[in-house]
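Quick note —
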Amino acid sequence: MKSKGLFILVICAIAAMLLVAGCTDDKPASEKDTIVFGYQPSTHQISYMVAMDKGWWKQDLAPFGITKIEDHKFPTGAPEMQAMLSGDIDVAYVGAAPVISALATGGLDGAKIVAAVQVNGSDLVIRNEHPYNSPQDLKGLKIATFPPGTIQDTILRDWLQSNGVNPHKDVDIRPMGPGDATVAISEKAVDAVFLPHPAPSTIVAEGHGYIAVHSGEMAPNHACCVLVVSGDLIRNHPDMVVQIIKTHIKGSEFSTANIDEASQIYYNMNKVEIAVIKDSFATWDGRLITDPSIIIPSVVSYTKIQADLGYIPRPMTADEIFDVSFYQKATQA
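Predicted structure written out below.
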């Protein structure tokens, strides 16, 4: 009887284990078949759009078991980083400043900047009735720009402060996404905007303002958009991270060499007039790049500015923000 009872217990234990196994996903936790990108409707991130249009993301990541590419479009970097904090996106094309804000909270779980996307590329556009000769002329004006913690907000406030204009008292800075800010200046709800391209070219084309200052004049060769990958990809799929960077480089190089085709791709995805897109590329002071080492000093300087503004508790180091090892592997001969 004892042996029979023992036999029954063993059978029950095996059945229980099989039941538990049947209730779990067939794939190990580390396997992925879908990659989700986040991006914004800006010419700054044309490299992503070109690679998506060409089918390169799906083609290049297929050897890693990826069968589906998804993306989400965000108006600015703050909600995009919130989506990464929530685990809703794996890869982000986003401004460096929102990454800093998210990393400072400690909630990104090992996500890092692994490549650069571009530098400069935003403009201060002022309504035609307001003449501009120096930053002092901005006193008393209402200026729309991206929300606190973004590249545009960080650069604008630091530039005003450095030129004797108190960003809290001398001007009225209003946080808005590009669509709302473009409408606001057209309706005279604000006097100026500081936005990434192609919004400045759209405003100029519609006759609602003129470009007064390029962002590269405010902070020469400043970092803007970057490529961020999740901590999960870094820990569990390092070879895939290397390929993501290779595809990003391919998209960047193609965009630089084929502006007309890149402009058409941008139109297909965002429905901005072709003439405006081409004018944006012709007049902006932006430059598509991929090497993260170029932007490290600029990004680290943002952490000091944001700490001074009270956005983050303290400045951060390059190692807390970047992992350049993947880029080095991606570009090895």
